[in-house]
Amino acid sequence: MDYITISTKDNVATALRDCKGGDILGNVVLLESIKSGHKFALQNIMKGDLIIKYGEAIGKASCNITKGEHVHIHNIEGIRGRGDLTQS
User: Fold this and answer.
1) 13 beta partners
2) How far is the C-alpha of 42 from the C-alpha of 87, rounded, in Å?
3) Which of 23, 49, 61, 68 has its CA 20 to 30 A from that of 76?
4) What angle do CA 16, 6, 17 make, to 5 degrees?
5) Where are the beta strands (DSSP E) in the chain?
């Protein structure tokens, strides 16, 4: 296995090896290189959508993220421990 997901809710997966742009993991063509342990989008994710990993929200998209794109601090905004955000 080249990647891991835990839940059908996940919209990102974690690479289990260093991958190159153009590699196909499952039904996803990687748009850029992904290092082992880093995330990539399993589907298009719109700005403001929650990032779901292992069935849990780990952040929200700070911009639109295309299926196969690297998902990391450059396109995720934290949601935990934010005193300036209110939960609905």
Assistant:
1) 40
2) 26
3) 23
4) 5
5) 3-4, 12-15, 24-25, 28-29, 39-41, 50-53, 56-61, 70-71, 76-77
pLDDT digits (tens, 9 = 90+) for 5-62: 999 999 999 999 999 999 999 999 999 999 999 999 999 999 999 999 999 999 999 9
Task: Give bridge partners of residue 53 from the DSSP assignment.
Answer: 56
CA-CA distance, 10 to 87, in Å (whole number)?
Answer: 21
pTM of the model: 0.88
Structure-token pair, residue 16: 């289990």
63 HSE (CA, 13 A, CB side): 9
Per the DSSP assignment, residues forming a β-bridge with 29 are 24
Q: In this structure, what are the phi and psi dihedrals at residue 18, rounded to the nearest 5 degrees?
A: -70, 130
45: its two tokens = 């994710």
Q: Can you tell me whether residue 87 is helix, strand or coil?
A: coil
Cβ 71 vs Cβ 28: under 8 Å: no
